[in-house]
Amino acid sequence: MITIAELADLLLASQEGLDRLKYTTLMYTLQRYHAAPKILTEQATKELPGTDIRRNVLGEDNGSARATAMYDDDVLAVVDGLHEVVVQWKKVTANFSFDQGEIDHNTDPVRILDLYKIRREQGQAALVKYLEAKFWADPPGDTDTLTPFGIFYWIVSKITGASATTGAGEFGGITPSGHANPSGGLTHAQWRNWTHSWTTFGEDDLIKKWARMHRKTNFIAPRPTQENYTEARDQQVYYTDEYTLEAAEKRARQQNDNHGPDLGMYFDEVIFKRHPVRWVPALDTKTNQQIVAVDWSTIEWCVKPGGFLVEGKPQPVANKHTVLAVFIDGEGNLVCRDRRQNGILIGPAI
Predict the structure, then answer these.
(1) Per-residue confidence (pLDDT) for residue 229, from 0 to 100
(2) Spans of all domains in the chain
(3) In this structure, what DSSP letter does residue 39 have?
């Protein structure tokens, strides 16, 4: 009989054999996972030291430009235009475990590794589903010190007031619901996302406002070396609920008479200004239809150095001497570096 200590050594040394067992997984309840695959990659994370997450924003120039004449005295200008966005670290964890009795019934090392593979994928799936849900959830609120931020902490809707409903729209996304201060604690006239609302899916309503949001959030710096902006905007994606997407697909078919025999023309292929429009199942549960413009070049999942979803070694569990557990731990939070590049349109009630 393999002991619990021997099992720990076996699992730690033999993880390369985890592809033996084949099975169908039904664990994922959403048809699309857009956020978790992006923030759960090392390329999409940003390692930062410190007791909290701090990102600098340069908000003002020094105002030194002026017309001048020969022999004019110089006028020097020094302006401290740096502002800080401050976000707290949030810890996330998932785990999977084994009991000695399960090992006794699977004495073949290959079957033990198959069991390990299943439990490991269950733990990873739990973490993926948790982060995806929190990414699209309403802001956690000031009193919640545990839950990581999602996209609606940074992209804030405004559905009241003339500028948000009947006017031209505005950079009016300031303070997320449940919070006393603007996102990241920064109060600045430029630290806001675009927001507007629509009533009908028509040329003079949603289409016009969608185009305006696209235009207003497209900041192209006159100095192309600045890393925050790319003219191609290849990382901007529009996310929406199924009701809005179906209306967009219908309108796309109406605009194109050359359908051919394909009854599913434009299904999941709608674009707006060459940017993809994606269905987010989590948005189907919101109160209103919405289109969320996310520029992924401005979104980061910040982590502590060495704190990117570390999978620990199998270890005994306190007060359960026959149980081994493996923990997947991470410490980070979602941060937006430029809210102006993002926006939201709120539609009719679902």
Answers:
(1) 47
(2) 4-57+93-138+303-332, 151-301+337-349
(3) H
